[in-house]
Amino acid sequence: MATAGEARAWARNALRGIGDSLYTPFCGADGDEIDWDAYRTLIRYCVGDLGHPMLWCTSGIAEFWALTMDERKRLLEVAIEEGRRANPDVVVQACTSAMTAKDCLELTLHAQQAGADIAYLQTPMMETHGGEGVLRFFSYIAARTDIALGMFNSPSSGYVLTPSESARIYHEVPAVCATKEGAFRPESSRRLHQLAPDLVVWECDRTVYRAGWLRAGIVCPAQLGTAGYLFETPQRRLFSEYWELVYNDKLLEAMDYGRESGLDQFDLDLGSWWTCYPGRPEYFTHWGGAFKYCASLLGLPIGDYPHSRPPQAELPAEAKTQIQSAYRRLGLISASG
């Protein structure tokens, strides 16, 4: 675990490679329980079978808004326990976002005590008074904890920090060392790097890596919170091989690999089911049921309740048909799978 004082030096070296954002497998009536065996299997698969060096816990794909405080704490504890059993050096990233600063503090202190390496705070989803309010939120947490902190700048919050607002948080809160820029606005990430050149930035728009932004030092050599385990299997390590080419600055080879392996086409074939509910197309979501359906196609356990908890909707048959076709075309499942 990196303390607040160590955070920035630690982040520049430790945040590397693929970081898997874990879903939460539900079971029982209405999904009111968590299938802990399935969750442990997922962790072992990501860290052990795939060899991914980082985990991203209790965040959007995990449906943190639908989890109790106790569930969120236990999910993190199990990730640390199973992840470090498979790889003692695995980097565990905890998303401790919450609607109230006091709940966020409780979760961040728990992450610190449980042995997580860094805690990310997503911009609060309601009553956020711009960058000034988010700065107060970060300052409140940082004053009461001693762990590396990251920003999670996602449109699912309803408010996305501007580059200058993020840079101000970085400059005024020394524990802040990294940011997951999830708004798909690379021009803002470039500006943020200019304002805070030592901040570790991950841009969700993957095209910037092909444009040489890693070589230029604008973005970091890591996927801080992806569903990388849904893009490959131990037998066909498509995602890992692609990113190794990028990290080694073999950009032409990476572009060829993306095209020839089918990864580029896969993004198009999947459509927007991971991040868009058709009944509210203007809203960026993390549709838990869609991620878990993909996992089920690859043979990963998702619990006997395959849906998201409310207030998310159940994944429609149309989505399942499109997703299954995408996996068949990529070759990760058989034509009859």
UniProtKB/TrEMBL annotation:
User: Membrane spanning segments where?
Assistant: none
List the Gene3D superfamilies hit by this protein, alphabetically. Aldolase class I
Q: Does the keyword RNA-binding apply?
A: no
GO MF terms, alphabetically ordered: 4-hydroxy-tetrahydrodipicolinate synthase activity
Query: Which Pfam families does the record associate with it?
Result: DHDPS (PF00701)
> What CDD domains has UniProt attached to this entry?
DHDPS-like (cd00408)
UniProt keyword terms in alphabetical order = Lyase
Instruction: Please name the InterPro entries in this protein's record.
Output: Aldolase_TIM (IPR013785), DapA-like (IPR002220)
What is the similarity comment for this entry?
Belongs to the DapA family.
Name of the protein in its database record = Dihydrodipicolinate synthase family protein
Q: Which organism is it from?
A: Mycobacterium kubicae
